[in-house]
Design goal:
160 residues; AhpD-like; CMD domain protein; mainly alpha
């Protein structure tokens, strides 16, 4: 069973489980995207711990504590104490680069339409390179995708 199916509490043998079997490739690709975005071989300037902390934070912004708990586990595995406090919305760090990354991740989660070229320039001004800006955007897109897919599956499963 995939992470999405587990967190959506898809019951084996249910009509939803049968429908999802027909979409197994989408679920497989979602699992692969999870690993690529959260645990890449080369994390660039966004460590595995920071990625996991931001993912947990995004899940909490979306009121999905189960998904946040999954990412909390990845934060613990990464053993990066400096990023662990970022899992809670409303927290930040003194380091300007990380603080701006957190602000941008929050913006992409809570008000993506408010993101501007100026925000990208601010990230660059604190030393975030273009590749890491793309990585951050991919992370936000993926976690918010997960949240929405899980929410939809929960609603469908509740109607069965």
């Amino acid at each position: 069973m995939t992470l999405i199916e587990t967190l959506a509490a898809v019951r084996p043998g249910s009509a939803l489980a049968e429908a999802m079997e027909k979409r197994a490739e989408i679920l497989r690709l979602s699992e692969a995207a999870h690993d690529a975005v959260l645990l890449p071989r080369d994390p660039g300037g966004l460590s595995h711990g920071l990625r996991a902390a931001l993912a947990a934070r995004m899940a909490r912004h979306n009121n999905n504590e189960a998904l946040a708990g999954h990412y909390d586990g990845l934060v613990e595995r990464a053993a990066e104490n400096a990023t662990a406090l970022l899992v809670q919305p409303g927290t930040n760090v003194d380091d300007g680069r990380t603080a701006e990354i957190v602000r941008h991740a929050d913006r992409l989660t809570l008000a993506p339409r408010d993101s501007t070229r100026g925000h990208i320039e601010t990230l660059r001004s604190v030393g975030v390179g273009d590749a890491d800006i793309v990585r951050l955007s991919e992370l936000a897109a993926f976690v918010n995708y997960q949240v929405r897919v899980i929410a939809g599956l929960v609603l469908i499963g509740a109607r069965q």
